Amino acid sequence: MKRGKKTVTSDKKNNDEETALFLEAMRDVIPLAPSNQVVHRQKPPRPIPRPAVEKPAAEDTLSDHPSLEIPEGDEWSYLRPGLSRQILRKLRRGHWKIQSELDLHGMTRDQARYALTVFLDECARYGVRCVCVIHGRGLSSKNREPVLKSRVGGWLMQRDDVLAFCQANPEHGGSGAVLVLLKASA
Question: What does CATH list as the number for 77-182?
Fold first, then answer.
């Protein structure tokens, strides 16, 4: 037991000696004057542009008639004619980062069509390439069937700026959402 006490005593002595050596070494050090500036180490993110409220949206020219037939439980997709299937494959695999999203939950058909038109026009204005449109699975609608899913597909097919779309991956909404690839702005 005496050994344990001697060890504790000698450890304390070593700590006292180290502290004394440190204080001796730092004796002539003068602290820097505090500055009232913050040093940013990383480049701040670019602000997200917001649409101007007073500017009227583009005319709603989307029709409900070219509805897209989607068999129950099937994944659905669209690729503009003449484009490589690689584009659709890359879209499914997340090659393009989702830059914006639109949630249509709780909207009527007319509200959703208008919101989609305004959203895609704003995306074109700001050069957004890949978006996620959340249309829902229809669990809250009559007969628990998706009302907007096929309509959104039909509306997207009518837009010249839509190159491709496909069902979103589970982390982005699965069968209740669609990923959309838009033309690059010129």
Answer: 3.30.1370.110
